[in-house]
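thought: fold this chain, then report.
action: predict
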Amino acid sequence: MEYRREVALVYSLEEALQKLNSMREHGFSEFEIHVFAKDIKPLHSLKMYTDLHVHQAGCLTDQLWCFFSRDNLYEVCLRNFDFSKEERAHYGHGIERGAYFLLAEHEFPVEKQLTKAHAAWKTTNIVN
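observation:
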């Protein structure tokens, strides 16, 4: 499996739904798609009836992280993803203006999985 990622910043719910369908057509499953928005009320049915990860940008956790890190509130919600500071600023500004930010990526990319997979013990001598 190769590592793939798609990113979209759209300003209407209709565009967001079209992009979600496009991501599904490109082979991403629902649990690999994240949706960030300042207001998640229009996305309530997606959150309840699908496996999409719907995140409210600017939630209490983001506010606390923002307070201690001194970063922009809407950039902070993207901190767990591998974006450059410029990308986080661009996407965070879009979310702040009311856009829907969609991110689809395979959860276990081969390149990252191999570099992070270090066993703390040897498994060759295990007996059933």
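thought: worth noting. Residues 112-128 have pLDDT under 50 and may be disordered.
final: tokens above.
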